Amino acid sequence: MQDILQVLKQTDSFVSGTALSIALGISRAAVWKRIKVLRKKGFIIEAVPSKGYRLVATPELSAEDIHAGLHGSLWENIITEVSVDSTNTRASLMIAEHPHTSGTVVVADTQEAGKGRLGRKWLSPGGKNIYMSLIIRPGIAPRDAPFLTIIAAVAAALALSRSAGPEVRIKWPNDLLVRGKKLGGILTEIRSDPDSVNSAIIGIGINVNMDRNAFPDDIRDSATSLLCETGEYHSRAPIISEILNAFEEIFRRFMETGKESVLKEWRRLNCTLGKKVKVILINEIAEGIADDIDDNGRLIIKSSDGGSRTISAGDICFLR
Ligand code: BT5
To answer: Measured from the CB, is residue 172 less than 6 Å from ligand 1?
Structure first.
């Protein structure tokens, strides 16, 4: 199958079906068959009747490509896998085996059991999206652990807006939204002792080249992808590198200068503050205006009677 790819990879423009069939010595029907096989493997190949075929994105997620786009020194080890249960679970096993693992990123092309928060599932089809887990040993106080999600959200929002185009906004605590729809999510898992977070796994999932029909009915209206938003396919490796670069920069700043600059960026990029929200807590439902996040990354909600409460974890929905 390499032959057809070699021809398509030589150019950024379209190659006609006739040209391919001549170059490969096979019929046009056989060309189409091979294109379909490649698409199944995750190659994004555009087919336009009067023009032919154009290779838009490849499923290959090579550690070399990701490394090549890195500017800093935090991420020493990039591990790419074709299929895992969950990159967070894989990262957790790595830490169990080598407790000092740090600066490692596990990236997978597909996840068989992608995880959301609270036992929810993360839809993770192959060849299209980004699923990665960042492993660091942050050495921060456990009460500051929510900042890891905040840093990841700011890093992803900045990197995605820079590299892929759409304006990405952060919905507290872990959602990345474009035009109010969920483009990605973050799942941070930590191991800590009373004084310090020893290891953190920061799982990031971003929908990149999924088209609208690929989303199941239950999330089709609430989810989106870069393809849906921009009408274009995007290579994943450069986006991954950008997110890792941004994370490193913001994390270093956080460690060196404290929380204020991260909070400032979060406030600029969030779409939560000022909105009327409902939060489902264990035994009750809280409603009010999302007023701010505090120094520990908790959401402050002001209720209509003037009272306020602080929420450290939960799902919020916007009421208007
Ligand atoms: C999240 O959970 O948003 C965290 C998602 C983290 C995924 C990454 S992928 C790499 C790493 N390895 C993992 O196993 N996980 C992390 P939560 O806020 O609980 O949202 C989950 C809900 O989002 C689901 O119940 C669905 O309603 C919706 N959902 C599931 N898959 C989605 C997708 N691909 N795009 C948009 N929404 C999705």
So the answer is: no
